[in-house]
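To illustrate the input format used throughout this study, we show a single complete record. The first block contains the structure-token representation of the backbone; no residue identities are included at this stage. The design step must infer an amino acid for every position from geometry alone.
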């Protein structure tokens, strides 16, 4: 049991356990997540994790939902075209302070390829990310082509984050690629796709 000062406060337990699960998976992989490790990370008894979630699958689902909402909020995708520099600042803020969110999501994406029960949640997550990019690029104007373009733009951003998290590219390379993508998308959005 953790020291009294690091114990979960009443009313914050569920979210604290979800955040702890994300950190555990970021360090140990999805198959390294156990009630015991999550409880240890959160500084509580592992029976509290079981009480709140009942199963590791339910905990993993809750952690995916929380990580996607948090990452979406922190990265400001809806303002992607408003300012190239503001977007890059928001991206680095979330990658610096909350890289574990992205690692967790990538772990779950891979799991969706093996576990059909996770797939619907991953599809929903990507649909929401695409919706945010579409809103940034096209406002309320919706068409199949606009959605396809928004999905391609998000896939580019997602791929850059994956490559960075995996150590394949540097921050400078990410910045250069985001700048190039931003210029390309600005031209497409202005021309009306």
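Output of the design step:
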């Amino acid at each position: 049991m953790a020291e009294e000062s690091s114990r979960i406060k009443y009313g914050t337990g569920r979210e604290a356990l979800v955040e702890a699960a994300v950190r555990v998976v970021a360090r140990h992989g999805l198959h390294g997540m156990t009630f015991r490790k999550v409880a240890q990370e959160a500084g509580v008894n592992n029976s509290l994790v079981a009480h709140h979630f009942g199963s590791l699958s339910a905990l993993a689902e809750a952690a995916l939902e929380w990580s996607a909402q948090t990452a979406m909020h922190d990265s400001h995708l809806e303002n992607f075209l408003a300012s190239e520099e503001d977007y890059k600042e928001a991206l680095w803020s979330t990658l610096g302070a909350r890289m574990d969110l992205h690692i967790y999501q990538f772990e779950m994406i891979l799991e969706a390829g093996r576990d059909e029960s996770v797939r619907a949640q991953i599809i929903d997550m990507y649909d929401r990310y695409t919706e945010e990019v579409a809103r940034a690029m096209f406002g309320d104007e919706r068409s199949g082509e606009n959605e396809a373009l928004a999905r391609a733009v998000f896939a580019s951003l997602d791929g850059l984050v994956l490559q960075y998290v995996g150590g394949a590219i540097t921050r400078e390379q990410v910045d250069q690629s985001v700048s190039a993508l931003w210029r390309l998308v600005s031209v497409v959005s202005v021309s009306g796709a």
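Structural context for interpreting the output: The domain at 56-191 is CATH 1.10.357 (Tetracycline Repressor; domain 2). The chain has nine helices and no strands.
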